[in-house]
Amino acid sequence: MATNRCIYMGIGGPTNSLEVLYVGLSTRPNTRFNNHHALQAQNIKQFYIGEITTSGLPGRRRKKVPTDLDATEHALIAYLRPELNVRRKSTLPEDCVSVFSRFFGKNNWEKPKPTPYFFPPVIAFNTYSGEWHPEREDITDAADKAS
């Protein structure tokens, strides 16, 4: 993959219950994997690298990272709440965002593979209503139901 803009996910856990442990973004993926402490975690077993394909968001950039890449990372972290991510788990995206996932094999980038069980096929957040699709339980709601 020859890209200079990517989202990456570190996956780990027991084989029968893998989960996303870390979500990050990079505009220089060729150097990122050797220079980030969270990516050296022993419990990360595999990585998925994603390419963002969008026409981008109009307007001036307010951040160093392209706006569409930043919005995607924020939505994934806020929705999935990966264990190794420190920032963005408790904040909502600033704008409406939808992430449609398609996974491909290492050697075939034409035909998508089935979406892994640990990752939703679509994640969407509506800023105006404050709703996630598919609906996501808050950590406090899930804890209340468990007790």
TrEMBL record:
This is GIY-YIG domain-containing protein. It comes from marine sediment metagenome.
